[in-house]
Design brief:
By secondary structure, the chain is an alpha+beta fold. The protein has helices at 3-12, 20-24, 83-92, 99-108; strands spanning 35-41, 55-56, 59-67. It is built from four helices and three strands.
Length: 110
């Protein structure tokens, strides 16, 4: 299986679904590596549209992200973020630095 096919299969049928508690404990189970991640929710506000979203049991996927992002083309150094730092930030950060939080805020704002 190619690496792209493997990533797609892990996003659609993940071998691990970690909770907030799992991610914020030490040692953190999320690798300190670059990669793609998916965000599954077990409880959703009724206002959040889920048509076409992948579900696994009670979990619904609403977001897919990548860390680090594409290297900048303006000469700035590339991001040093890893999957671990990015996912932990989604749990503890704010909407300014988290596309996940910003997207959810926009969906729930009305």
């Amino acid at each position: 299986m190619t690496s792209l096919a493997y990533v797609a299969s892990e996003i659609d049928d993940p071998s691990n679904l970690w909770t907030r508690e799992d991610v914020l404990t030490r040692p953190c189970p999320v690798p300190r590596a670059a990669g793609v991640y998916a965000w599954y929710f077990d409880q959703l506000p009724l206002e959040v549209p889920t048509k076409g979203c992948r579900t696994i049991g009670e979990w619904t996927r609403l977001y897919v992200g990548i860390s680090p992002g594409r290297p900048p083309s303006n000469g700035k150094p590339p991001s040093r973020q890893t999957l671990q730092t990015r996912i932990r930030y989604h749990f503890r950060g704010n909407a300014e630095g988290s596309t996940l939080r910003l997207s959810l805020g926009c969906l729930l704002s009305e």
